[in-house]
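Intended use. Records like the one below are meant for learning the mapping from a protein sequence to its folded structure. Do not use them to infer anything beyond what is encoded.
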Amino acid sequence: MLDDELLSTHLQELRRGTVVLACLLILRRPNYGYALLDLLDRRGFAVDANTLYPLLRRLEKQGLLTSDWNTGEARPRKFYRTSGRGVALADTLSRDWDELDTALRTLKGES
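Structure written out for the chain above:
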């Protein structure tokens, strides 16, 4: 039987890259960080704000996201959107994910 710490470590490793892909896919439509946290959670990607915001900054620095401030509301919000480069990466990662999924399903069927 797996202990909780071992399971938690491996689940975190497995999900780390999927959160990047999920953000790139979701942010094809502009959204702000807090709403993105909610969308990710509702779609099965439990992400902490302390993880998401540094990730968004990193993706923006890499040119995979763009951002704009919306100051038209009472509280200014930074809206993120997947850039053209980010869309291309999301497309490539999605294809690779599909290939990995097929390979894993084949392995599971062999056992």
